Amino acid sequence: MNTLLLDHVRQLLAKEGWTPGPESALESALADPAEEAVERIERGQEVPPHLEDALEAIVLPKLRPVFDIKDDTFAPLPNPWTELNNRRTALKQIIRGIGRVDAPGIPYPYAGTAFLVGKDVLLTNRHVAEIFTDGLGVKNLRFKSGLQPEIDLKQEIGSTSEVLVKIKETLLIHPHWDAALLRVEGLPASRRPLLLAGSEVPQPVGRLVAAIGYPALDPRNDIDLQKRIFRVFEKKRLQPGRLMASRQIVSFNNTVEALAHDCSTLGGNSGSAVIDIETGLAVGLHFAGRYLEANFAVPAWELALDSRVVDFGVQFANPPNPKPSRDWLSRWAAL
Description:
The protein is an alpha+beta fold and 335 residues long. It folds into three domains: 3-59, no CATH class; 92-185, Trypsin-like serine proteases (Thrombin, subunit H); 196-332, Thrombin, subunit H (Beta Barrel), CATH 2.40.10.10. It is 21% helix and 27% strand. The strands form four sheets. The chain has an eight-stranded antiparallel beta sheet. Residues 18-34 and 53-59 have low confidence and may be disordered.
């Protein structure tokens, strides 16, 4: 087992207070090899190769599972995710504002995920928008020839229902963050924008969150392992986890201070909303991950510092006051 995974497993076990008691969420999934692997980790011993698969089968699908979304909600969740059950009403409205970005004619099943953040305005990743958009910044953005992207606010497991809205234009492609804004038309009145955190959440490490989006099978990584965790791909899913310490990562040749989380995600999750369960606010825009190590999101409060983002009507709660300065804002001048 690689050192990064071993350290991550130790952290997960400690955070969840895991014990093999009758109330454990893992009890029904424990097998002898997996239990032995966990015991070896707790004793600080190396895990032999033949136990690695059994260990991953617990730590990844069970400590960071992926739940189905049906009819804009989810079935009651087991421990340690029962806090999400208490927030089902609020989460249902949030789920209804998240959609899959489709662009018929591209060489992928779909482009990624996006979510409503203002009147007819959705937030997604720059690398998602660039699949169908040419340009950078806020001027002279145009769709690539022959492409007419759209958003489907459904695409759930076991359902053929669609809630399709046309993407009218790309409003903004950010020069520093992996973020973009899209304007749509034909949005149903019942779909309301998500509210973004305008200032940093207190003591973020360990906070309960959920990524909501559309995970897609990633051929670059272990396919069997992905099938064990996700089971179904390209459909809207609820992916709970916890925030980690912020980390620096290179994104579009820029070093950014990203919000890290450990929800189980895949490539199609690009553009997913990372929701703080306690407040119901979108605290991050998921954009990347390092396999079996950490996932990364654009912090919502960083976008709140950018007047161009705010001017397009993106809705923030508790905006920062006073506003801290950021060197990355100068990147707009270079355009």
